[in-house]
Amino acid sequence: MKRIVLAHSAADIPAVARALRDAGAEVIFVAPDQVVSTALQEDADAVAVDTNVGAVVAGLAERDAEDIPVLTYDQVIEWVAGRYQ
Description:
alpha/beta; Rossmann fold
């Protein structure tokens, strides 16, 4: 099961979370400013955000966690389903 940290700053979060769960992922909801620290604490397989992708990537890089993919909502659904590289 993939563990996804999902920033909950958009109205479409319930639909995204449901799609991820339907695809077999565990979803951890966090505020956008907690994405990086939660991804590290929870040993996340990926992070899903709707904005500020660059800032999250930079935050993970600062903590030597470049191996955690940072994806948009559309991308993470495809990634969990194995259709996005």
